[in-house]
Write a structure and sequence with these properties.
This protein is α/β, with parallel strands linked by helices and about 325 residues long. The chain has helices at about 15-25, 35-45, 75-80, 110-120, 140-150, 160-165, 200-205, 225-230, 265-275, 295-300, 315-325, and strands at about 35, 55-60, 90, 125-130, 155-160, 195, 215-220, 245-250, 285, 310-315.
Length: about 325
């Protein structure tokens, strides 16, 4: 009687199967600015489960409105009214430097890490930040920039939530499902070379017209009226105007007027050139409180315009500048 050879099971060990399933499920978003179609595909391939420890794609709502919003809307309100399924909410008015007198200064690394833990984000998650349907691209780039400043490996911007809704991708409403306890998110290290403080900003502005100066270009995202000093600032008592030598690049000009999405890269390049921006010189983005300055930064990236190593953001922006300088000093101009 012939002996039968032992039969090897074709079934892999459960841990191996889980790793294999996780590997096939993961789809990485390739670019910094992504379309609704790209995000939808990634979410379908990266289904969130309570037991999975694989890296995830997390939609992150960064909805925020100016303090003088005519309808008195808040980010939390629109997040509850309509959002991408499984999205988390990033509160710009909470995740900041609470010791600063200025509205949206970068938080400490400890505050940032604690905020990530509270909303259940892990260091290896891919984050896709998005804005409101009402405003289009507005505050999401600031949140995405904050993640980059703190060295988060995978962060992206959805271009944009209005198109997500119009193109029929799913949404949900109501109270968000609570996360399963705080996540593990170690305290990161801030990248200081991408952030400009007041002292450095003041020196750059003073040097802008000097012969032989480095030629730093300041791009201001506020409206033309606020930049020129003919329209008021949204914060009472704050004078409008602009820094000497700054270039006005209103955030509205970077966006499609119908969809509120960032314009294509070639159109953005033409716009920056039409404003006289030199891609060979360092660029500092500014705005009212440091929020829409990040839209300029994202647009520069989408246009592949300028050197990423010399592209920075003035964190305090006009709110700090206007409180620490004056028209009499020559550091506030109106035109």
């Amino acid at each position: 009687m012939a002996l039968l050879a032992p039969v090897r099971s074709s079934l892999a060990k459960p841990s191996v199967r889980l790793r294999s399933m996780a590997a096939t499920r993961q789809v990485h978003l390739q670019s910094y600015v992504v379309t609704p179609k790209e995000l939808s595909a990634a979410l379908k391939k990266n289904v969130l489960t309570k037991i999975s420890t694989a890296p995830r794609v997390i939609p992150l709502c960064a909805a925020w409105f100016l303090p003088n919003d005519p309808q008195g809307r808040t980010g939390q309100q629109v997040f509850k009214a309509k959002r991408i399924p499984s999205a988390r909410f990033f509160d710009l008015d909470a995740v900041k430097d609470h010791e600063s007198p200025y509205p949206h200064m970068l938080p400490t690394a400890e505050v940032f890490a604690k905020a990530m833990q509270d909303i259940g984000i892990r260091r290896d998650d891919e984050i896709c930040v998005y804005d409101t349907q009402e405003l289009g691209i507005f505050s999401a780039p600031r949140v995405a920039w904050t993640f980059k400043i703190f060295g988060h490996p995978g962060v992206h911007i959805l271009n944009n939530f209005r198109l997500w809704v119009e193109q029929g991708y799913p949404t949900e409403s109501g109270e968000n499902e609570p996360v399963e306890g705080p996540s593990q998110y170690s305290t990161p290290t801030l990248e200081p070379s991408k952030v400009v403080g007041f002292t450095e900003m003041k020196e750059a502005v003073k040097d802008h017209a000097k012969e032989g100066a480095e030629g730093v270009q300041v791009l201001d995202a506020r409206s033309q009226g606020r930049w020129a000093g003919s329209a008021p600032e949204p914060r009472p008592g704050l004078p409008s105007g602009h820094m000497p030598g700054s270039i006005n690049v209103p955030v509205s000009e970077l966006l499609d007027p119908d969809t509120g999405a960032l314009l294509p890269g070639d159109e953005l390049r033409k716009l920056f050139r039409s404003k006289g921006v030199d891609p060979e010189k360092p660029i500092i983005s500014s705005c009212g409180t440091g929020v829409t300055a990040a839209v300029i930064d994202a647009a520069l990236g989408e246009a592949n315009f300028g050197n990423t190593e010399t592209r920075r953001l003035y964190d305090g922006s006009w709110t700090e500048w206007a409180q620490r300088t004056s028209e009499a000093s020559g550091l506030i101009r109106k035109s």
